[in-house]
Structures are given as C-alpha cells and as structure tokens.
Amino acid sequence: MEHRITIGGVVFFAVVGVGPAAFADPSPEGAERVAPGAIAGDTAAPAAPRQPIAGDTAAPAAPRQPVAGDTAASAAPRQPSPAELASARHLFSLGLAAEDQGRWAEALEIYERISKIVVSPPLLYHLGVCHEALGHVVEALNAFELATSGATARKELALARESRSRIEKLRARTSQIVLRLPGDATGVRVEIDGAPIHPALVGAAILVSPGARRIAVSAENYAERFEATVQAETGAVVELQAELGRKRALAALRPIAPARPAPPRAPAPGPSVPPVAVLGAAAALGAGAVVTGAMAYDVRHTFLKKNANPAPGSLAERQALRDRGQALAVTSTALTGAALVAGGFAAYLFWTSPSPPAAPEHAAGPRPLPAPRAPGLTALSPWVGADGAGVAVQGAL
To answer: Which domain of life is it from (predicted)?
Structure first.
C-alpha cells in the first residue's frame, strides 16, 4: 500500500490544484502530474475490451459499461464550480485518512461522493483499492480498468502501471460462470445476484467474485424459469446448463370473423321547404318586380307629360298620377328585394340538401326513370288598385 498516496494521492491533488507535500512524501516512481484545473471537465476514458463481468449488460465486443452497483461512475455532465472542486479536494483528504486507518467502507463512501462531482484516474484507482480491501473483486477490477485507461490517455504512466499490476493480481482471485441455454431460446433474461446480464454474454465466461452466486434464467418461448445457487471458488470455472422445461405451445390463431358491413346511415333530414318551391317563388317575385317597375315607369312618364303642360282643372288628376307612380315604384323595389332574398335562400337549400345516392356499378339493368310529373299551370297576374299594386300568383309550381 506504499504507493497509495505517492501515486494516486499525488496525482489527484496535483490535478485539482493542491500541492501534495502536506499529505505524502515525494513520489519515488516519478508519477507525472497534470496541470492544475484540468480536472474540471475530466472524464475517465472507456476501458479496453475485456472479459465479461457479472452485471454487464453489453456484449463482449462492446466498450465496457458501468455495472449495477459499480462505483466507477461517469463524471457529472456539467463542469464543477470552484466551490465543488474545493469540496472534492477536502473529501479526498478525508478519504485518504480513512484509508490510513483501515476504514475502507467509509473511504469508499467518500470517494463515491467525490465521483458525483468529478472523476479522474487517481479517484478511480482509490475506488478500486477500497473495493479490493472489502472483497469486491469484480467492482475493483472495473475501477482499476477505468483507472488504467484514463491514466494511459493522460500519460500518467506510474498510475497506469500500478493499476495494471493490481488487475493481474485480481484476475487470479475471480471466478467464472459459463451459462448454457437451449439454442432456440428467445427473449432470454439472465440475472446473477439480481443484476441483469446481456443475453449476448450467454455462453461466454462471465467474471464473478468468489462465493455463493444466485443465477436466474428465463425465456419467452419456454414455460419454466431456471434458478440455482452455485458456489464459485477462486479461480474456478463453473459451467451451468439452464433447464427451462418444455417449450410453450404457440397460441392458436383465433378465426377472424368476416367484417360486417356497416348499417346504412339514416338519410339526413331534408329541408322542410322544397328548394324548387322557393326558387319558383323567387322567380315569381322577380317577375312581379319587373311588371310593377314597368307600370311605374309608364305612370311617371304620363305624369311628367301632363305636368309639363297642365290643363285647367287637372290638378287632381296629376296628383293621383304622382301618388300612383310612387306606389308602383315602392312596390317594385320591395318585390326586387324579396326576390333576391328568396333566390339566396333557394341556393342555400340546394347546397345543403343531400345528393341522391349513386347506384352501385355492378347493379344490373338500366336505371329506372323518374315518374313524369303532371304539368301544372302557373299564372302571374299583376294588379293595380287605389292602395297600391302587386302580382297575383295562381296555379302550381
């Protein structure tokens, strides 16, 4: 443990900007130091491809991902503030003191708190040291591999060399579990001590810490769930055949009933007034407006002619002509307005009335012709009286 402070501690404090003289002697191995402040955005580089470890959810060829419970967490997504870096430096000194006194669980908890602020190869190294002291072989391997990768990328050769040395020693203390499943199993779910294992790792040697390990395997197309507890001895390889029982019977396809045609929709209620009747009324009103307008023009012409050369005693006659012309003009104007309103209403009724359903193309035979309507007689009779003038409509539209 003489390298714990001289390598990991020296580099950590050099990185966060605090001189190491207050905590350790000068490094006998000449570990290279990183410029102060470089820790602010530091993240550990991904480890090189390695042998699968229990708790991994990635395929063997994929870059390592943190396992469940792994303390080698990635750095915080944001850059830590100066106050947070000062807190990390203080916590690191507390962690070193806990290590010196053999309080490994306390030191591990402190380092995990630091990893939520900033992550560096020295911190990962000390995480691995604590896990190793507590017997967490797999977690220690994870931390040392990340420390090795990060230290190599940052040219911290002494720290990388020390981490690799510990990895070689730890691998001899691990156990391996090899799971065998039916080749046609689909939807496989594997757990070791409750931690999920990627199905691609099935059949490969998975590193686990020595001791009793709980294995659980299930597959979608098999009826039973396999569970077993195995004793993984140090350096041993445990091969396990997962018996999943009989295959599930494929669910019988239900016969699909033919789609029933939708019931015909009830015809939309038509307008209470036939559009044709309204159109006929509009035409009649328009004709009445034309007739009364012509009569008003004729009366006005007569009035102007007699008024230009008035005969003696013709005042009453001229007054009557003027009143009659005014009445006809007002009537013609009113009929014109009514015809326009009726025409607009008829257009609205034609627009909103449902169109007759088209006959299906496969219908045989000619379409029946509509029954002829009996012709009706329509008569328009303009009238003029003492009280006004108008148009009388008689007959059928």
So the answer is: Bacteria
pLDDT of residue 85: 92
| Same domain assignment for residues 159 and 181 | no
pLDDT band per the 50, 70, 90 thresholds, residue 25: very low
Q: What is the pLDDT of residue 66?
A: 37
Q: Please, what is the average pLDDT of the chain?
A: 73
User: How many domains would you assign to the chain?
Assistant: 3
- Give the confidence band of 366 by pLDDT, cuts at 50, 70, 90: low
Q: 179: domain CATH number?
A: 2.60.40
Residue 351 has a pLDDT of 73
Q: Which carries the bigger pLDDT value, residue 239 or residue 52?
A: 239
193 lies in the same domain as 281: no
What distance in Å separates the CA atoms of residue 137 and residue 175, rounded to the nearest whole number? Answer: 10
Instruction: Judge whether 364 lies within some domain.
Output: no
C-beta separation of 295 from 384 below 8 A:
yes
**Using 50, 70 and 90 to split pLDDT, how confident is the model at 17?**
very low
Give the pLDDT confidence score for residue 370 in this predicted structure.
61
What pLDDT does residue 151 have?
93
Q: Which domain holds residue 307?
A: 275-352+381-395
**How many other C-beta atoms lie within 10 A of the C-beta of residue 134?**
14
Q: What is the 3-state secondary structure (H, E, C) of the chain?
A: CCHHHHHHHHHHHHHHCCCHHHCCCCCCCCCCCCCCCHHHHCCCCCCCCCCCECCCCCCCCCCCCCCCCCCCCCCCCCCCCHHHHHHHHHHHHHHHHHHHCCCHHHHHHHHHHHHCCCCCHHHHHHHHHHHHHHCCHHHHHHHHHHHHHHHHHCCCHHHHHHHHHHHHHHHCCCEEEEEECCCCCCCCEEEECCEEECHHHCCCEEEECCEEEEEEEECCCECCCEEEEEEECCCCEEEEECCCCCECCCCCCCCCCCCCCCCCCCCCCCCCCCHHHHHHHHHHHHHHHHHHHHHHHHHHHHHHHHHHCCCCCCHHHHHHHHHHHHHHHHHHHHHHHHHHHHHHHHHHHHHHCCCCCCCCCCCCCCCCCCCCCCCCCEEEEEEEECCEEEEEEEECC
